[in-house]
What does this fold into?
Amino acid sequence: MIEPRLFWTLIGILCFLVFIRAIITISRGIRYEHLQVSGFALLILSLTLTGPYSYIYYVGSEEIVYLSLSLALALLSVVFISAGTLSSSRQWVSRRGTENLNRFTNLLIFAYVRHPVSLGMMLISISMIFYIHSLLSNLLAGVAFLFFMFSSFEKDTFFKELYGYPYKVYSKTVPRFNFVLGLIKAIIVSKKVQDESRGSLLDS
It folds into this structure.
């Protein structure tokens, strides 16, 4: 349970941030960003409708399991969102050039998953469903999950139009959400490149 004053202060800060983001998104006119902002707004509305007292109480083993799952998903989402934000700040496409998008170098988190921020927000949506004891709020969080998922499809379409063939190659190589599969693929590709390099050195 959260102290009401702190709860509504946090809600106010989140509303202000989403409002600023919405203004920037409208000015940019990019569709996948509209979907992301809509997802953020739905999550905040989900929290607002529950209020500070409508969460799972620490009674019984079932509630503790739900709380543990919620916290685990929330922590994992923070990892993906932080990694995606930091990787984006590197401007990996502009710095490396679109002709090398099919390589696993200098992509940071984007070498393993194409949409880490959307994945993180989807995990937060699921975390809220486990944590909040409200049918209406759970429905809103579920719709927010769909908005974040659809935004990733729109983002792929946007980047394919923007960068063309190189991004199509990249999207076939790196999974949209499956980080584990992306990591395995990266290891396989890295090993293949090393073997090719050793082969060329032996030939020379």
About this structure: The CA atoms of residues 35 and 155 lie 10 Å apart. The chain has one domain: 4-203. Residues 4-203 form one domain. Residues 91-99 have pLDDT under 50 and may be disordered.
